[in-house]
Every structure is written in C-alpha cells, then in structure tokens.
Specification:
Keywords: ATP-binding, Disulfide bond, Kinase, Nucleotide-binding, Rhamnose metabolism, Transferase. It comes from Streptomyces glaucus. InterPro entries: ATPase_NBD, FGGY_C, FGGY_N, Rhamnulokinase. By secondary structure, the chain is an alpha+beta fold. The protein has helices at 51-67, 109-116, 119-126, 135-141, 146-150, 157-166, 173-176, 191-196, 219-225, 240-246, 277-281, 304-312, 318-327, 348-358, 367-393, 410-420, 431-443, 450-460, 472-484, and strands at 4-11, 15-24, 27-37, 41-43, 46-48, 75-80, 85-88, 153-156, 171-172, 182-183, 188-189, 207-208, 213-216, 232-234, 255-260, 264-270, 285-288, 294-300, 399-404, 424-426, 464-466. The strands form 7 sheets. It has a 7-stranded mixed β-sheet with strand order 17-18-16-15-19-20-21, with helices on both faces. Helix 10 (240-246) crosses helix 17 (431-443) and helix 15 packs across helix 16. The termini are far apart. The protein binds beta-L-fructofuranose.
C-alpha cells in the first residue's frame, strides 16, 4: 500500500521517546514505542548528561519500534536539544560525560568572547541570540581543559548517538547553526569568527543536511535491537526545534509559531536572516531550518519554570494545580520569562517570589498563585516575542501555531491567544517527532516540499483552536509594568 515505517528518536531535556511514524502518500500516523526519562546528573565537576543511559534508551526504543513493525524499519532518525556535544579522542572514544547546557561553567565567559569579537560583530556574522550556553561560549569556557586538549572530534548530541548507531560521523546543519559558528547567509562555517576566537573548526565532522544519508545500523545494533537490516539512518532536522517547526501545520506564510516544552521558542519562519542591531538588542536568533528556511525566534524559559516548581513541591498532581490556577485572578504579578536568571535549576518558587518582590508586585503565595504567575508570564512573553518578531522582520501574521508538549495545557494556549490578540491553533503535541518522521519520509520517496508535508499534517492531525477573548489592553499594561520595573 506504499506505507513506510520510520523510527523517530526525539530527546528532550527531561525525557526521550522513540516513535514509529507510518507514512503513505496521503496518510501519517504516529505511535509511541518507548519513552524514558532523561535525568541530568550533578557530579563534583558540574551538571552532566547521562549520555550512555540515553543511548541505552535509544536502543530499547529501536527494539520496541521494530516489534511494532515486523522487525523492519525503512529508516531511523535522531533529534535532540541543541548546543551540547561530546568529545572523542583519536580512537573515537568518548572523553567524559557531555556537559549540560545549564551547567554554570559559562558564567562570565561571554564578556571574554566579546572582548575579542564585539557582540555586534558576532551577531552580524552568526545571527545567534545571546545565550550563555551557545556552543561557542561552552568551547571558550573549556579552552584550557585537559579534555578539550585531547579531543580530536566534537559531535553534537544527535550526531554522537548517530555515530554510535552507524559508525559514521557528521555535523547536521540545523543543529550546527546553534553553535554560533555558522554564518546564516552562506549556511556554512563562520571561519573568521572561529579563527579569531581560537576555535578549531577541524574538530567538527563535515556538515550534512536534513535528508542526507547518515549510514546504516551497525550489525551489533541490529542484533541488539532484533531489527532486520539494512536499516538506513537518515539525517533529520536534528535540532528538536527545527523538527518541531517543520511540523507546524500552517497554511501559507502569515503565521507565528511557539514550540512549547521545557522551553518556549517563539517566532517566525523566514527565507532570510534578520541581522540588524535592533534584532540583536531584542535578542532574536536566526537558526537554520529545512529547505533553506530561517527560524527567527526568541528563547523563553517555558514550562521549565513550572517543571522546577513542581519538582520543588514534591510532584503534586499537575491537572489539579492547573485547574486551581485557572481560578486565580489573572495578571496579578508577572515575571520576565525571558530572563536568563531562571536558567539554572533549583529554588524556583523562591526565585519567582523574589522577582515579583523586586519589581514591586504582589508576591504569589499559594502553589496555584505561583502557577498562575508562571502561565501569565509565559503568555506575556509569547505576546512580546510574536509582536517583536513581526515588527523586526516586517512579516505580519494572522495566526499563532502552538506545537509541542504545552499544547496539552489548555490554560496556557487560551492565555496565549488572549495575550497575542490572535487565534491560536494548538497541535500537534509531538511536533518534533512528526517533523523528524516527515524529513525521513521525504528522503525515502514521499513527494512534496515543506508546504506539501504541512498540508498532510493539516489533513491528518487533530488540532484545537483558541479564539482570543479580548482584553489585550490588560496585557499591554502588564507588559508596561514589567518594562518599567
Ligand atoms: C529546545 C532547545 C532549544 C535550545 C535549547 C537548548 O529543546 O533545543 O531550541 O535553545 O533546547 O539546547
């Protein structure tokens, strides 16, 4: 019947999942084969990823995916969070546990980088927003480490896992664009920036593009997963946000998107980067997407704020918490959800209370009040990002697409519609996995471009529409309150 089966490995900051996508000329189904936690580990030297645990989860997931498709897969592909990497020695062995982007090692590093390449020049050359964890700053922080001195190769997380599966090394472009070592105009390495900062681009494996072949599963992997070979591995938009944006079920070009999850990534899909000073001041990033597109967006702390509170509170029932939060009066206090002060883990309820106090607003007391403060703050940050992006890029929109885990949070979706004063179309929740699957499907014969696969999503995925309820003046006022504090 022309239906093919693809395994999409999608690794988020708190969990990984392996999904089976079944794609025909006019059908698209996604089934979860395996889900596993991703728990960062704090060791004496800092916060680290348990990358071997993740790889074990990937193998378990491929086995489970195979079990659902008669032991055969037409291809597999991996996406994950961005910026982080593993280092390999001359034998190809991993040197230590990859450092977590929330680790404190990059504190104060940006200033050192800017002393060599001023921030404005860096933006003009790379288009990347300032975030302390961009790979460029991580590599600068690690400059005199014994580990980096021994390293012969750097592989970004999805590329590292792909290497373990296939034995082949590459650097996938969408994720490479988050290193701050790529020029978004040429979509190639920013040689000049790297040279001035003493970063050896020879550490990186050759660039590959979404849709490129990335090898086949090694015989040992086939044996361990019970799959029948050959199983090709395909490079996808290996940055999870690239995959998620590829699965935004948009019709036409006049849309904004918000990829929700641990982060909220809010912005536009453009055909060229915006590299103006104004854009830099507004901290918008130009990451690279599929088919020559640019993801012009701002990072917002996202549901991380709530996840950290829930963790601090000993994991109360989330549904009940959200129902109570819906009854708390709106917009009593808001915090700046774009503030890097919320980046590190720990003490989140206290840090939110402190931010409210410092800006002269009522301090949220109960859990429901803190939750409401977080959701109002996120919706407000969504509004600012959607407005700023349209203005800075000269690209007006009629609708906001919300994709990712946050689509399950109806209150957040409704507040986002209210704050933006625009309809919100919510779904799909598993956007990253769907984008991952669709890139594989295109590489293996599915006809159509990005617009075509988006039409397939519109036809096959359940979506929920939220109309703005009016009252944007209140959101404008809250925005002014925050700006004035
Ligand atoms: C989302 C995401 C963001 C990136 C952040 C850190 O999962 O990939 O796009 O800025 O994680 O890697």
């Amino acid at each position: 019947t022309g239906v093919k089966a693809y395994a999409a490995v999608d690794l988020g900051a708190s969990s990984g999942r392996v999904m089976v996508g079944r794609v025909g000329p006019d059908s698209l189904e996604l089934e979860e084969a395996h889900r596993f936690p991703n728990r960062p580990v704090r060791v004496p030297e800092g916060l680290r990823w348990d990358v071997l645990g993740l790889y074990a989860g990937v193998l378990d997931g491929l086995r489970a995916a195979g079990a659902r498709s008669g032991g055969r897969l037409d291809s597999a592909g991996i996406d994950s969070w961005a910026v982080d990497y593993g280092l390999l020695d001359a034998d190809g062995a991993l040197l230590g546990n990859p450092v977590h982007y929330r680790d404190g090692r990059t504190e104060g590093v940006a200033e050192k980088v800017w002393a060599t390449v001023p921030a404005s020049e860096l933006y003009a050359a790379t288009g990347l927003q300032y975030a302390p964890f961009n790979t460029l700053y991580q590599l600068t922080a690690a400059r005199s480490s014994a580990q980096l001195a021994r390293a012969e190769r750097l592989l970004l997380i999805p590329d590292l896992l792909t290497y373990w599966l296939t034995g082949e090394q590459g650097t996938e472009l969408t994720n490479a664009s988050t290193t701050q070592l790529i020029d978004p105009r040429t979509r190639d390495w920013a040689h000049d920036v790297a040279e001035r900062l003493g970063i050896d681009l020879g550490l990186f494996a050759p660039l590959r593009h979404p849709g490129d072949p990335a090898g086949v599963l090694r015989p040992e992997v086939l044996e361990e997963t019970g799959l029948t070979g050959p199983v090709p591995v395909t490079a996808v938009g290996s940055h999870d946000t690239a995959s998620a944006v590829a699965a935004v079920p948009a019709d036409g070009e006049r849309f904004a998107y918000i990829c929700t999850g641990t982060w909220s990534l809010a912005g536009l899909e453009l055909s060229a980067p915006v590299l103006t000073e104004e854009s830099r001041a507004a901290n918008f990033t130009n990451e690279l997407g599929l088919d020559g597109t640019v993801r012009y967006l701002r990072n917002i702390m996202g549901l991380w704020l709530l996840q950290e509170c829930v963790r601090a509170w000993g994991d109360p029932d989330l549904g009940e918490l959200l129902r109570e939060a819906a009854r708390v009066p709106a917009l009593r206090s808001v915090v700046d959800a774009g503030d890097a002060a919320f980046l590190a883990p720990g003490r989140m309820p206290e840090r939110i209370a402190e931010a409210c106090r410092a800006s002269g607003q009522p301090v949220p007391e109960s859990r429901a009040e803190v939750t409401r403060c977080i959701l109002d703050s996120l919706a407000l940050a969504h509004r600012r990002a959607v407005e700023d992006a349209q203005r800075l890029a000269g690209h007006p929109v009629d609708v906001v697409h919300v994709v990712g885990g946050g689509t399950r949070n109806a209150l957040l979706c409704q507040l986002t519609a209210d704050a933006c004063g625009l309809p919100v179309v919510a779904g799909p929740a598993e956007a990253a996995a769907l984008g991952n699957v669709l890139v594989q499907a295109r590489a293996h014969g599915l006809a159509g471009d990005l617009a075509g696969t988006r039409r397939l999503l519109v036809r096959t995925q359940p979506l929920t529409r939220y109309e703005p309820r009016g009252g944007t003046a209140r959101w404008r006022a809250a925005e002014a309150r925050l700006a004035g504090s």
